[in-house]
Specification:
With about 350 residues, the chain is α/β, with parallel strands linked by helices. The protein has 3 domains: about 10-55; about 55-160 and about 305-330, Response regulator (Rossmann fold), CATH 3.40.50; about 165-305, Rossmann fold. The chain has helices at about 1-20, 25-55, 70-80, 100-110, 130-135, 165-180, 200-210, 230-245, 255-265, 285-295, 310-320, 340-345; strands at about 55-65, 90-95, 115-120, 140-145, 160, 190-195, 220-225, 250, 280-285, 300-305, 330, 335. The chain has a 6-stranded parallel beta sheet with strand order 2-1-3-4-5-11, with helices on both faces. A 6-stranded mixed beta sheet has the order 7-6-8-9-10-12, sandwiched between helices. Bound molecules: beta-D-galactofuranose. Beta-D-galactofuranose binds near residues 67 and 145.
Length: about 350
């Protein structure tokens, strides 16, 4: 349609020019000529813009949702990396934690013939068909954050994210050391776990990592998903507090569920944190977790770095240059106990 408009205007412009050459153009022809000139001038910048936009690498990003502080930081990392100034056109989709929405987004990216598809898969299974469609369309798929469980790993180019099993193991190692320091190494320790979205890599890995590192005198009283959200985490913790009156430790598989659990514990007239009745172990280490540790509510947060934007851009640049990338790339992560929170919070990027 745009191209048709330009050719009509140009022919009118040429006719008007010829008429003008044969004598004074009527005011109407002059107006058309002016409009054509303007249209052509308008088209030229558009044409330049179009040429520039053709040079942009188009990235379709199927994000999980906006369920947690971690996710907000993760989204911001992508949006601040994949900018036009950096040579990208980002098409962003928030799936509101629903796999069917992510699958729809991936199909839309395929139809738009994007250059790359990036997915943070809400759960690990159910992706083979849509990944096959992307493969047939010749569009590389990069996984960020959570993983996909597929029979043919050629369906995606690579994955970058946290080592969730190690995060769970690190949390258990911290608890073992903490209890030894408290002189409670041989005590019976009762634990409840607020799990993330069931089937999400972060939930699968953290549950497995912590569970496989349990000491013989530790008892896992119960586990239930809090969907990685603060409200659901509070709700589940309230039910745990009604069922069990001897909880020693809460393992929350992300900071937002830990915040909800802390609210529930306080509402039940109990205390938590380094000086409280209940030990709070969390994951993500977002800034609000450091604030919670400084406030004396949380004992430790195991970091899961959300700043994947630059890592994925680096992968795309390598692929654009014809290079190859590792299939699995872990981000660096640490364990942050309450004792150091005040010193560290100023250095945190998210
Ligand atoms: C971890 C990520 C998890 C975070 C949660 O890589 O998938 O999802 O731990 C987020 O905060 O909701």
């Amino acid at each position: 349609m745009k191209k048709k408009t330009v050719s009509v205007l140009l022919s009118v412009f040429m006719a008007a020019t010829l008429l003008a050459g044969c004598g004074k153009a009527t005011s109407e022809e002059a107006a058309t000529e002016e409009a054509a000139t303007e249209e052509t001038e308008t088209e030229e910048p558009a044409a330049e813009e179009e040429a520039a936009s053709d040079d942009l690498i188009v990235v379709g990003y199927a994000q999980v949702g906006a369920e947690s502080d971690w996710r907000t930081a993760n989204t911001e990392s992508f949006k601040s990396t994949f900018t036009e100034e950096n040579g990208y056109k980002l098409i962003f989709d928030d799936a509101q934690q629903k796999q069917e929405n992510q699958i729809k987004a991936i199909r839309s990216f395929i139809q738009q013939e994007v250059d790359y598809i990036v997915v943070a898969p809400v759960v690990e299974t159910g992706w083979e068909t849509v990944l096959q469609e992307a493969k047939e369309a010749g569009i590389p798929v990069i996984l960020s954050d959570r993983q996909m469980d597929v029979s043919d790993d050629s369906l995606y180019t690579c994955w970058v994210g946290g080592n969730f099993i190690k995060e769970g193991q690190d949390a258990a190692a911290w608890l073992k050391n903490y209890l030894e320091e408290q002189g409670r190494a041989d005590d019976e320790i009762n634990i409840v776990t607020l799990q993330g979205t069931i089937g999400a890599s972060a939930q699968v890995g953290r549950t497995e990592g912590f569970g496989s590192s349990m000491e013989d005198n530790w008892n896992m009283l119960d586990m239930q998903t809090g969907e990685f959200t603060q409200s659901k985490g509070q709700e589940v913790m309230e039910s745990f507090l009604k069922q069990y009156d001897d909880i020693d430790v809460v393992v929350a598989e992300n900071d937002n569920m830990a915040f909800g659990a802390i609210d529930a514990i306080k509402a039940a007239g109990k205390t938590c944190g380094p000086d409280g009745d209940i030990i709070i172990i969390s994951f993500d280490a977002v800034k609000a977790a450091f604030e919670s540790m400084i406030a004396g509510d949380m004992n430790v947060s195991v970091e899961c770095n959300p700043l994947h934007g630059p890592r994925v851009a680096e992968i795309i640049q390598t692929l654009e240059a014809g290079g190859t990338v590792d299939k699995i790339m872990y981000v660096d992560e640490e364990v942050f106990p309450a004792e150091t929170a005040a010193d560290v919070i100023g250095t945190r990027a998210y």
